[in-house]
Design brief:
The structure is a homodimer of 371-residue chains. Chain A is of the alpha/beta class and 371 residues long. Chain A has 2 domains: 15-24 and 270-370, Aspartate Aminotransferase, domain 1 (Alpha-Beta Complex); 26-265, Aspartate Aminotransferase, domain 2 (3-Layer(aba) Sandwich), CATH 3.40.640.10. In chain A, 44% of the residues lie in helices and 16% in strands. In chain A, the strands form 4 sheets. The first copy, chain A, has a 7-stranded mixed β-sheet, sandwiched between helices. The first copy, chain A, has a 4-stranded antiparallel β-sheet with strand order 11-12-15-14, covered by helices on one side. In chain A, strands 1-13 form a two-stranded parallel ribbon. The longest helix of chain A has 21 residues, at 270-290.
Chain lengths: 371, 371
């Protein structure tokens, strides 16, 4: 343990175009280094309240917004444990690795879990959803908004009404879309909408957040063996009473999130932010077309926050990633079974069009060399 | 959301003498603000490895040391879910609020949980332990080293051999003692030894760590419904293969921990660090005696990291805490049922004797005013 300062210089130059953790602006990093009082202090409660109220605005909801000391996967597990009784069935729509993970969470927690998948690269359509829901009686439905592995965005605005019509609770994993894509929680009737902060929020990892509907809280009260760490009822109790958490939360990330919510809501503004993410995605797809590559997702369902690109030129992806890294930019290989068959460019958080243009120019030259 | 910089000035002056989160030195805060690569990068794996190897030295163990994106309570839940089969019984020794919490975790996860408590302020003695173990057949025993609520340190060096003799797995919650008190994991046969980093490590909250024995991993493989988020087998797999975690970890806290482990092991040194914590506790107890207060814990079992002090002078504790706060120091009221009957001074992490002396001088004057 001689040199703890590895990557100190490199780190400060490296610009992440990743699907998370993403590039964190200097002003947000500075928030991470501020000294804090304890999690039972008034200054903490003030921060917690600002996060909760900021998230309500961001998600267009009156639902309580809770803070979790976990990654988004922790809240995915919380949904399964709090909302599904052992004698009920849960339906997991999966369009990629994170949909599969949610299903595995269902199975590994001993819940009766049914997976409805589609070929990777495709989205869940209204027809697929309706058919799956007609097949059996479910109590809860789990679905990704944006699937980080395939870069597909489910048509959640069309799917939510169909799913809710069947009388279930609806949990939406918005990990790589919350704060980058408009999600109107109350209008869509989403019972739990969850995300971690190291994606579109551009905050360092270690914190996850979600909105929870009254119906979801009421259901949780009836579910046995919810455990303690992810118990929604206990989390709500502390949140409502004092804007606090039952266990010690990641205060630096919460402080950074207050700064980012302030920036998102009051500086950039929601509409401009969602528009910028749309433009970043369009710009990337235009580049993909120009360089004779192809998008992996089915046309019309491409994500606004991460572009998954088919390796149709048979490029040596690890080499490409490594060459780009030496130029100060990180993009990433495909996820799991999609490694080397695809690669991914993240364009979320505080990435601007001019940043993207610069990086793509360098990447074009590297691809020219490699193809 | 007009002023996100609340407590900015105050925060930088405030000195925490708390039982966690504790005062974080400037050099550690700076680590929190450094830019990081992703959790699938080589620089991350290097940090992860440094933490794992540093913890092995700190805990005198060859056991794998794992990283959790949770508070210590998360690992307490992981122990229950991974190590206790539904047809087995688990024994929870409790000497205060955190012992009670571990028992509640057992119950709320549907495990057959037996609690053996003693009057708050007392420790588990060898006799109490032996008698409890004789009463029934248990598969796992859960116990605190330091109980943060009562300020009692269980005689873990005497208890561990007795507990292990009964053939169980032994889980020790060392949350407020790890890195402040010597715990020889391999010598004592501790199967899981866990802590969060916002106590004796003096790192901001949002990260928890533990050592896990081979026997514990082997047991976990046989336990059903372990869930996914806290699955020890999955965590071990990623850790051994690549020094990574299955889900995105709190990288800033991990970076800060590498810096602190380097400082603890190579700058201050373990023996000096444990000795300093002992001296801080002795100094506090001497002050308690001089000011005509009394320690809450039974004599001989007082914690080296947090002093729980009986309110024998009938002081207005909230007023005392508030007056001290206005002088730039935070101590805290008693925990839960001990509020106003006791108060607590934390002396862990990087607190030095001269810091403690300064604070106690100010506190003495306030108590003189109030009594």
């Amino acid at each position: 343990m001689t040199d703890i300062h590895f990557n100190k210089e490199k780190g400060s130059q490296l610009k992440l175009f990743t699907p998370g953790p993403v590039h964190v602006p200097e002003r947000v990093l500075k928030e991470m280094a501020k000294p804090n009082d304890t999690h039972r202090s008034k200054p903490y409660s003030e921060m917690h309240q600002m996060v909760a109220e900021g998230l309500q605005k961001l998600l267009y909801t009156k639902n309580e917004c809770l803070i979790f000391t976990s990654s988004a996967t922790g809240i995915m597990e919380a949904c399964v444990r709090n909302l599904v009784n052992d004698d009920e069935k849960a339906l997991f729509f999966s369009i990629g690795a994170f949909g599969d993970r949610w299903y595995e969470i269902g199975v590994s927690n001993g819940k009766k879990s049914i997976k409805q998948g589609v070929e990777w690269g495709k989205a869940i359509t209204s027809e697929v959803a309706q058919e799956a829901l007609n097949n059996d009686k479910y109590s809860v439905v789990f679905i990704q908004a944006n699937e980080t592995s395939t870069g597909v965005y489910n048509p959640i605005n069309e799917l939510a009404p169909i799913i809710k019509e069947s009388g279930v609770l609806l949990c939406v994993d918005a990990t790589s879309s919350m704060a980058g894509v408009k999600i109107e929680v109350d209008k869509l009737g989403i019972d739990v909408c969850l995300a971690s902060v190291q994606k579109c929020f551009a905050v360092p990892p270690g914190l996850a957040v979600c909105s929870v509907s009254t119906a979801a809280f009421e259901k949780a009260e009836q579910v046995k063996n919810r455990g303690l760490y992810f118990d929604l009822i206990d989390l709500k109790k502390r949140h409502v009473a004092k804007y606090q958490t039952p266990t010690t939360p990641p205060i630096p990330q919460i402080r950074a999130l207050t700064a980012q919510l302030d920036y998102i809501l009051n500086e950039e503004g929601l509409d401009k932010r969602f528009e910028r993410h749309e433009q970043l995605a369009k710009h990337t797809r235009k580049w993909v077309n120009e360089i004779n590559l192809e998008m992996f997702p089915e046309k019309g369902y491409e994500s606004n926050t991460v572009s998954t690109i088919k390796n149709s030129l048979d490029i040596d992806i690890p080499k490409m990633v490594s060459m780009l890294l030496s130029k100060g930019y990180r993009i990433v290989n495909g996820y799991g079974q999609l490694a080397n068959k695809t690669f991914r460019i993240g364009h979320m958080g505080e990435i601007q069009i001019k940043d993207l243009e610069k990086m793509l120019k360098v990447l074009s030259e590297i691809i020219d060399d490699l193809k």
